[in-house]
């Protein structure tokens, strides 16, 4: 890594954004984030596939954007939006 670049943890729980069980599929959480080559991916925890919004895979995102998107997708109104494809 370059100078001044902090290592990024592999999963949300490593950055203290949620408890380990908060995003476990059995607990009802559908979306989470994971590190990818370009940044962070928002993915469906049941399929493991990246979320696709209007044909654009949600990969390579800044960690804050990815986390906010994953949280937003958990809201009931967003869960019904048919423009989201996994």
Topology:
Elements: E1 31-35, E2 40-44, E3 52-53, E4 56-57, H1 63-73, H2 76-79, E5 84-85
Antiparallel strand pairs: 1-2, 3-4, 3-5
Low-confidence runs: 1-9, 13-23
* DSSP strand count: 5
Cα-atom radius of gyration: 13 Å
Q: Oligomeric state of the chains?
A: single chain
User: Percentage of helical residues?
Assistant: 10-25%
Q: How would the global form be characterised?
A: globular
Instruction: Calculate the mean pLDDT score and round it.
Output: 75
Question: Largest beta sheet, briefly?
Answer: 3 strands, antiparallel
Distance linking N and C termini: 31 Å
- Widest β-sheet, arrangement of strands: 4-3-5
Please report the number of helical segments.
2
Secondary structure category = alpha+beta
The portion of residues forming beta strands comes to 15-25%
H/E order of the elements? Answer: EEEEHHE
């Amino acid at each position: 890594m370059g100078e001044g670049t902090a290592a990024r943890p592999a999963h949300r729980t490593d950055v203290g954004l949620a408890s380990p069980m908060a995003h476990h599929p059995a607990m009802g959480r559908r979306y989470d984030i994971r590190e990818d080559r370009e940044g962070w991916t928002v993915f469906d925890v049941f399929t493991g596939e990246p979320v696709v919004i209007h044909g654009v895979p949600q990969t390579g995102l800044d960690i804050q954007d990815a986390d906010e998107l994953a949280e937003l997708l958990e809201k009931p109104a967003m869960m019904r939006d048919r423009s989201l494809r996994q």
